[in-house]
Structure formats: C-alpha cells, structure tokens
Known about the structure:
Layout: H1 4-14, H2 24-41, H3 43-48, H4 63-82, H5 90-113, H6 115-118, H7 121-135, H8 142-166, H9 172-182, H10 186-192, H11 202-229, H12 241-251, H13 258-278, H14 299-308, H15 310-320, E1 332-336, E2 349-351, E3 362-366, H16 376-383, H17 386-392, H18 397-404, H19 410-414, H20 418-434, H21 443-466, H22 472-481, H23 487-499, H24 506-525, H25 531-539, H26 546-554, H27 558-564
Parallel strand pairs: 1-3
Antiparallel strand pairs: 2-3
Helix pairs in contact: 1-2, 4-5, 5-12, 7-8, 7-9, 8-11, 9-11, 13-21, 17-20, 20-21, 20-24, 21-22, 21-23, 21-24, 22-23, 24-26, 26-27
Amino acid sequence: MPSLLKCGLVAAAVVSTHVFGQTSGQLREWAHAYYEWKAQDDPVQASDSGLHTWDNRLKDYSPAAMAKRRQYVADLLARVRALNTAAWSKDDGIDAILFRAELERPAFEARVLQPEETDPLVYVNECSNAIFSLLKKDYAPPRERALAAEARMSAMPALLAQADANLTRPVRLYAQLAMESARSIDPLFTTSLATLAADLDADQRRAFEQARDSALHAIHAFADRLESRLASMPPFKPMGVENYEYFLRHLYLLPVDSTQLDMLGQAELARYRGLEALIPNPDMANPNPARSASIPRDQQQFLSAYESRLRDILQFLKREDLITIPSYIGAFRIRQLPEAFKPTSPGGFMNPPGVYDRDNSGFFFIPTYSPDSQNFYIRAAIEEPRPILGHEGIPGHFLQISIANHLENEIRRHHDDGVFVEGWALYTEEMLLRRGFYASGSAAEGQILRLSRYRAARVGVDVNLHTGRWTFDQAVDYFMRAGGLDRESATGEAAGAASNPTQKMTYITGKYQIMRLLGQYRDRKGRQFSLKHFHDDLLRNGSLPLSVQAWILLDDRSDLDRASRD
Length: 566
C-alpha cells in the first residue's frame, strides 16, 4: 500500500478544482485514494477490516471533521457523476457505475439520514466495535492490542461528550437501543478484554484499568443522559418514499420502486407460508429442541457441536460438484455473541475475513446458549444447525466474501452490495435443500422454509417502516403474525430493521434476483449448463449488484438501465 502521505496528496488532488482527463486510469486513482482515505478516516472500521495501522484511535466526530468528511465525499461524487464514459470499455464502465454507487451511500447518509445527529447507537457502537475489533483475532501480541485498547478507551469519554453535542435530534427508538447496548457492554470491556492484559506491567495495568473504568463510567452516564431525554424525542423518523426509492435505485441499482418491492415481499411470504403448510408435519418449521437426539450440556459443547456440522456440508458440496472452494479458504469458527450486540442482532452475525485481513479465518457469533431459550436461532441451532451454518459459512457468506476479497480489481474487491451478499447466502439454503442435502419433511426443510418466510416478512417491515406507513409496534406484530417468530426475536428483528435502513429487505430481494438470473443463465447455456459453473461465474465477480451481474454474465443491462432512470 502506498504511503499515507502520498494518499493524502492524491486525495487532496481529487477534491481540488482542477480538471482531470476523463479516463479509466483517473477513476482508479480516485478510487484508490478514496479507499486509503476511508481507512484512515474510520480507524475502528479499518481494524474490523484487518488493517491495524490506527488501532489506538477512534473516529473523529467533531463538527469540523464531519463537515470535512462530507465535503470530501460530495466533491468526489460530483466528479464521478460528471465522467463521460461513453467511449470506455464495458469493464471500465461497470467500474465507474460501481464506484459511483459506493459513494452514493455516505452522501445519502449525510444528506438524508444524518445519523450523527439522530442516532445515539452510532456512538455506542463506536465504543463496542473499537474493542471488539481488537479481540476477534490474534493479529498481534496481546500486550500490543491491550495498549491499543487502552488508548481507545481513554478517548471514549471525550467521544461521548461530543455525542451529546451532536445529538440535536435524537430518535427515541434509537436511543432506547443505544441504552440497552450501553448497559450490556461491561463484559466486553472486562471479561473479554482481560485476556489481553496479562502481559502488562504494574504501571501499564493500572493505566489500562483506569482507562477501562473511565470508559465504562462514560458509557453508562451517556445511557443515563439519553434516558432523561426520552420523553422529548420523536418515537421514530422514517426517511419517506422518495428517499427510500432513491436508495433502491442509486445505491443498490435495483430496478424497482417501494410498491413493487413490497409486492415482492408479499408474494414470497405467501409462497413460503404455503410451502410450510404443505410439508407432512408443518410444526417442523418451528424449531423444537425436544426433537433433538442430543441437547448440549453447556455453551462450549453447544459451540463445538455447531461448528462440527460444517463438515457435512463441505462433503456434500464436493461430492455433488456444486461449487469451487479455493485452496485459500480458511477456518470458520462459531463464537458467543457479546451481549452489547444483542439488541439489534438477536440472531448473531457473521464476521468474515476483512478486505485487508491477512488472516483468512472467519466467525459466526451466535447468542448465548440456553437449552430453554425461546430465541428462534438458539432453538434452530440445537435441533438442526446446518441451514444457518451453511448460510453464514460455506457455501454462504464466508465462502462468497472470502472469494470477493481476493479479486485483483480494487473497485470490485471493495464493493459490498448487501442485496447480493445476503441474497446469495439465503439462496444457498434452498439450493442445498433442492439438491437433496436435506431430507423431505425434515426439521432442516421446515427451518429453511421458516427462514425464508420471516426474511420475506422483513421486506414488508423494511419498506413500510422507512416509508412511514408503519409504526415500530406494527413491525413487531408483523414479524410474529406473518413471519412466525417469537416476540424476543421479532422485537430484535424490528429493531435491526429500524436502526439499519434497507438492510432487512436485502435477503429475499437478492435471492429472487439470483433465482431469476439462474433461470436466464440456464436458458442461455442450454446443454452446456452446469450449476457449478453458474455459482463459480457469479462469485468470481465479487459482491456486485445483480443488475450488474446480469450485464456481465448475460450481456443484458436492461435492469441496470431501469435502475438508472431518474
């Protein structure tokens, strides 16, 4: 990687008023400078992505820094929008479209969502991720990571004081989620972080503990201040139809509006509710540990048993020759979800290798085990862990993102289209079922149908929450009534949908697009069709919008043209 001094000079040139030649080489210079600027500007995210140059820093949320950040993105986006790519090659034109879509996200957040002013979770998540990103992997000696953690914790009181000043229009729902996360954060800073402090000398340990205690005091005090302001906060603030549809078309490059997207969700919900009813015992769609031959005794046995089932999937994929698994794919581990992340991630989350990561391993963080838990994901993991394991691991997220991280094309390597990423993982669940990996009428089949059912319900929740048609309580009720979830999972799902606009609709939307593309690909290939070739062709392009994938694989840009119409 070029020096950051050089990066700063290039980045400064990007936002200057000089006119550059409109070439693909210039585009790649701008993109490279942007990725380096972004990593330095957001050190916690850089740590999470495997770049540990700034592990002792937090993001700067001062008004001056935020204004400079927004201006940088706005100026660069204006330049990319102004490019005349008519004479460029197909590949170069695609890269210009991708880079513009990537820049649209921070520009949209600054213009519409303004999370620094409305969402206290921004600041609590900065604190939790600042520590979590140092703990996940043994990328450096414990002492070095402990000192980085100390520096970050020392900066947290000032960060949260800045948050108080920035949060001029906080939203009550976001504040409540932030309070819950803040009040669950202690084990991350104490039990988990203590594993790094063993090699500190007495003075260093004293400074470390003082920084930790001050940080926790500041985080709890921040939650208390939020609670004192709750009554004056609006319950929720949707972005509205116009903004939602701008997001769909310009960030995801989707050729649909909000009404069409809602209809897709309803159609898929009806299909999977019906398919549940058609299995011999529809109750199999509701995970029940009592049907399991063996219930784990404790957390460690639960995690070990969960992780071991990946071997079954790998053997099937190889035996049936369904996809290429490159030799560089690393180990995939199951870990306990820190309580601080539970409010908005009730089912846990996947942590793949980062785009800068030298360590090729990945993790799935699942909620704390309890044999009596009513949480859907725990019950599913006890009875039949393989559908969720395949979604998160191989052939799902872990495999797909690992492959994307190895692309030579920098723009495509960094592109992270959520509709494709989540659509692919959901598609693989049913792909394995249809290819015979799971028995008909089994708990696995029932679970796969229920997983698709509630992901279809996510579409309706996402669209209707953020266009302003539904309240949060209506969203929870819909997840329970239509999606088939328990109240705990439904509340967490609704919270995740509210706090991360458009993320929840990506699963079914992406799966639908992949299934559509699969049929078109088969028709195009005829007798030469191979499911393995389709999977390999799809994954070798990276995490790209499906409208772009259709242009690459089928030379059909009609979806992309529809998405691009203003």
